[in-house]
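Treating backbone geometry as a discrete language has practical consequences that deserve illustration. The amino acid sequence and the backbone structure tokens for this protein are reproduced below.
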Amino acid sequence: MRTGSEPTTARSALRMRFWLSVWGVIWAVFGTVAFAVAGRFGWSLACGLLLLAVLTDLVVVVWRIRRRARGTDRDDRYGGRRSRR
């Protein structure tokens, strides 16, 4: 049973999330290098950790985009079947 007003076929904006992740990778790499050159190793470490998080998100987004393109985009939590409660 649905309790919200969302459409039954709602999908996230994966392309937008992809480009935001690319933008995040660029800035995290820049911040990591810039802070390391400036001798601010704590900030450099923080930017490096942010880079890992953004790269993880980028991998997940690319995986979901490819899965959707192959036509295997289904709700895997229920073995491909949707719950009809």
Summary: Residues 14-69 form one domain. The chain is about 65% helix and 0% strand. Helices lie at 14-37, 41-70. The CA atoms of residues 50 and 64 lie 21 Å apart.
